[in-house]
Amino acid sequence: MNGDAVFWGSMITVAISVVIIVFLAFKVRNLIKSDAEKHNS
Q1: Cα gap 13→30, rounded to integer Å
Q2: How far is CA 16 from CA 5, 23, 31, in A?
């Protein structure tokens, strides 16, 4: 039971990390895109 709880805890941590990384990558991409548009105009 204890090992199972540790396993699920790590899986949840990994899932949250992936979500945060994807979110940050999306935000950075939007910032780069809007910055490029400002330079073009």
Answers
A1: 26
A2: 16, 10, 23
CA distance 36 to 33: 5
For the chain, domain boundaries = 1-41
Tell me the C-alpha distance between 18 and 31, whole Å: 20
pLDDT digits (tens, 9 = 90+) for 1-41: 667 999 999 999 999 999 999 999 999 999 999 988 888 86
Residue ranges of alpha helices (H) inside the chain are 2-40
Residue type, 8: W
Q: pTM (2 decimals)?
A: 0.68
